Amino acid sequence: MMRNVYIVALKGILLLGQFSAQVQGSDECSNFTSIDDFSRAQAYYGDLPFSCDNTLFPGWYRFIGYSGDKMLETCVDMYYCGTHAPGWLSGGHPSVADGAVQRKVCFSYYSGCCHNSTNITVLNCGEFYVYHLRPTPFCKSRYCGNGMSSGPAPTKETSVTQTKTGNRMPSTKQKKSQSGNTG
User: Fold this and answer.
1) Rounded distance, CA 68 to CA 55, Å?
2) Which residue range forms the structural domain that includes residue 40?
3) How much is the pTM?
4) Is residue 26 part of a domain?
5) 70 lies in some domain
6) Largest CB tally within 10 Å, which of 15, 33, 105, 169?
7) In this structure, are residues 170 and 35 in contact, taking their beta carbons and an 8 Å threshold?
8) Model confidence over 102-149: pLDDT tens digits?
9) Phi and psi at residue 124, in whole multiples of 5°?
10) Residue 132 burial (CB < 10 Å; 0-12/13-18/19+)?
11) Does residue 98 sit within a domain?
């Protein structure tokens, strides 16, 4: 008799745990800050001053628009994505069934594709990904999107995208590079 009570209680805990995970995923998929910044695109080779994410507010972010639709998954050379040390996702993106997973973000710099790194959380929301980002390990490093656009016309500023909760990612006032540099 005591054994049956224990099993019923255990099943109740497991069901409660599954329910909590589904609610948590739903919140992150609707409560995030959008990054729509052409200078974060992998194809962007930018002018000075370079930007960095070492003062980024920790939270959930989604890449959209000019920046791409997800974080870059391959190493990109220095000076791309509007910074000295572009950050890219090592280990690939998760499936929906994987839930929220830990991944390493590598920052390309003089010593190679993973000069420095930090761990983040990535969640597949079905049609897009969200990332729990934190400040980067050093200045002049930032998270890079998979966007291929070099951005809007040189005099045009990128837009600030407002999410459902009103969070804003600062706009970039940096101009598109007109030089023939290949990085």
Assistant:
1) 22
2) 32-143
3) 0.70
4) no
5) yes
6) 105
7) no
8) 999 999 999 899 999 999 999 999 999 999 999 999 999 999 999 986
9) -90, 115
10) middle
11) yes
